[in-house]
Amino acid sequence: MPTESQRPASDSRPDSSDPSAQARKTSSAAPERPKDDEGAGGDAGAEGRENPPKRPGKKPLIILIAVVLVIVLVALVWWFLTRNQESTDDAYTEGDAVSMATQVGGYVQDLQVRDNAFVHKGDLLLRIDPRDYVTRRDTARAQEGLAAAQYEQAKVQLALAQTQYPAQLEQARAQEMQAQAALKRAQQSYQRQRRVDARATTQESIDAADAQLRDARAAVQSAQAQVRIASQSPLQIDQARTVVEQRARQLDQARAQTAQAELDLSRTELRAPSDGWVTRRNVQLGSFVQPGSALFTLVTPQRWIVANFKESQLGRMNPGDKVDIAIDAYPDLELSGHVESIQQGSGSRFSAFPAENATGNFVKIVQRVPVKIVIDSGLDPGQALPLGLSVVPTVVVK
Description:
Keywords: Coiled coil, Membrane, Transmembrane, Transmembrane helix. It is found in: Membrane. This protein is α+β, with helices and mostly antiparallel strands. It has four domains: 1-30, no CATH class; 85-95 and 302-396, Beta Barrel (Elongation Factor Tu (Ef-tu), domain 3), CATH 2.40.30; 98-128 and 268-289, CATH 2.40.50.100; 133-264, Helix Hairpins. The chain is 45% helix and 22% strand. The chain contains seven helices and 13 strands. Strands 2-9-12-11-10-13 form a six-stranded antiparallel β-barrel. A four-stranded antiparallel sheet has the order 6-5-3-8, with no helix packed on it. Strand 10 (322-327) and strand 11 (330-342) form a beta hairpin. Helix 5 packs antiparallel against helix 6. The longest helix has 65 residues, at 131-195.
């Protein structure tokens, strides 16, 4: 649409000599300027043709190349610094956790520990009512005394047998010899009476000689029997020696029972086997405890790290390698240690149900192998480091 400025001069040219007409032209042209869109567009297009858009310079490309170079440089530096390091976040603190239990049963008479309290080796933890065990000890001691008396008596009997039985054998043999001599005299007297003329002797003398002969023979038989009895003295001595051995075994048994009774009495007191912290206490004063029942756990101060490294990380790892240890619970705590040992088997191999890969459905899974790491420095001996804390060890391999 032509504007007023583009109209023919014959239609709109005012008289230059008329000031009022020129003022009206100016006032009438001013409100119509916002409608002149096409003219503005045309002017812009013309200006665009006269001033074409500038091409992007080389500055953005240089910035991009610089950023890439910085990233590559940082990656190279990081690789250079960590090329001899193996790290894992599958690691935890470990230590000795001793389950404390009594070896005798009874009612808890005295309880000396609290939860998470630190105790020293030999400290009394609890005491079971000892009265029943004191009675058993006294009974065992009495039985031991009786067995000791019987043993001493058996030894005396053996000594008597070793002295008396040989003397009885000698006495029996002497009596046998006397009986043999008396028999010989009786035989001679009887023979004389039989050879004497009947008119020079009497029947009474003959009967007396015959009676003496029979008595002498009986005496010989009795003496021989005594000799046979006395000849059994070695067996009797052996029997007395057997009694002594039997009494000795009974005495040993009584002593063992006394020792067991005293041991049971001493076991009524449960003491700490080492320094440590008492945890998981599940016994109260007055509770009845059974032998072997777990009462609490004693955690010793010794700590180490069990880190489960991937099998691909073990190629250059060896016992003795230095380790830097970071603990999630204590970010400011810097520990150092060394690799003590590498388990000869993956964790899954020693699990309750090892994986069976012969079924035909094999899927390769990266195995993890437990590595024991010992803490060398950085840990305050008085600081309690709970078990099972998450740890990030970094092993410097060679």
